[in-house]
Amino acid sequence: MIKKVIQIALHSLKLVVRDKGTLIWLILMPIIWTILIGAISTPQSKNVKIPVGFLNNDRGIYGEMFRETLKKEKAIEIIEENDEDKMGNLVKESKLFSGLIVPEDFSEKLVNGKAVTIKILKSEKNFSYFLDELITKTANRVSIDALSANFTLEKLKERKIISESEEEKIWRDAFQKADKFFEPLPSVRVEYTVLSVEKRNEQLPAGMNASSPGFAVMFVMMGVFFAGAAMVQERHNRTLARLLTTPTSKFSIILGKMSGFFSVGFIQFLILIFFGQFFLKVNWGNSPIGVLLLTVSYVLSVTGLGTLISVFVRTSAQAGALAVLLSIVTSMLGGAWWPIEIVPELMQNIARFTPQYWAINGFNKIITKGLGVTAVLPNFYVLITISVITLFFAVLFFKFE
Q1: Average pLDDT, the chain
Q2: How far is the C-alpha of 105 from the C-alpha of 116, rounded, in Å?
Q3: 235 vs 46, 107, 242, 313, 400, CA distance in Å?
Q4: Are 71 and 159 in the same domain?
């Protein structure tokens, strides 16, 4: 039986491959659409710096020195603020990536060799691990500068070769010279206050990272539906009916046809993934197992839908037209053309009834957010459920004539 199933599946695959027009729709068109839409939606962000608020309450001069040291970092733009509440609101609204608050006694404690705390405001919306490291590095730098200045001043005072009026200038000069020769030794601590928000803004996919999975999902559905249209033509030509005259069971025929549909979609999806990865430089994430689970479950779901369409339409022309219409409309609803997060909530709820939504949502978790298999398991379960339901009814209503 397995041999016959494989033969029938290969025959279905050959019918699709022989049609050059279908191949154009399966491979060439998704590549063209991916490149065009991906190029249009790619954000233009040349030399964009991260805005960081800076509130200097220091009564001395070293808070300003800390700001100047931080400004040397090319990745950030220092935005000076004079009100903590205002700066906190800007951080909440993501107008500032984070906010730094230098305390009043910053200079005093540095000069006296005491630990001092810099407060940082962060929003739950933003992931700023690299920025945390950058600020900590700056704090370490100021710490060792102050330590070196304290050491220099203490030694000179022990030898009684300086006057009290010269101490401030000597400390400052030593601080600046030490800035060129420092080792990370934190005595300036960083304290974080995370500002909660009512709703977290999720990072949206853009450019090729959005168009590659989106149009792959749409055109794979279209490809499987086209394979179903070919089966309608076989039924019209009584090819399926003649198969029943051979020692081949109905189950083997149905399984073989569905395996052929699945093979079309799965191979097409793999080609589009590899093209996106190696030619368009799409980051398909670090979870190949997660991508595989989503791919298999999605192709199974559209296989069931494609078979159902082939059952109820009468001609291959009707099947082809319906394939294009359903693929485009449901893909637009499901988030293949644009991020689903930007449409009204009602449309987002409607999108959940399409397999494209669950596939694209899962791929975005891997590509955009860098998540793994565990994160996409809910998407996988939903797609498998759709597969079971659609395949069941496709088998139940399958027609040979």
Answers
A1: 75
A2: 8
A3: 57, 86, 10, 11, 6
A4: yes
Structure tokens at 286: 């670090």
Total structural domains within the chain: 2
- Residue where one domain finishes, among candidates 195, 228, 256: 195
pTM recorded for the entire structure: 0.58
Domain that holds residue 267: 2-42+206-396
Cα–Cα distance, 368 to 356 (Å, whole number): 17
Give CA torsion, residues 107, 108, 112, 114, to 10 deg. -80
Residue with tokens 């991260």: 50
Reference 213, options 357, 326, 320; nearest CA is: 357
pLDDT in tens, 247-291: 666 667 777 777 877 888 888 888 888 887 788 777 777 788 888
Q: Say yes or no: 212 and 131 in one domain.
A: no
- Cα separation of 277 and 265, whole Å? 18
Summarize pLDDT for 166-192 with one digit per residue, the tens.
766 777 777 767 665 544 444 555 555
The Cα–Cα gap between 62 and 106 comes to 7
Q: Are residues 98 and 159 in the same domain?
A: yes
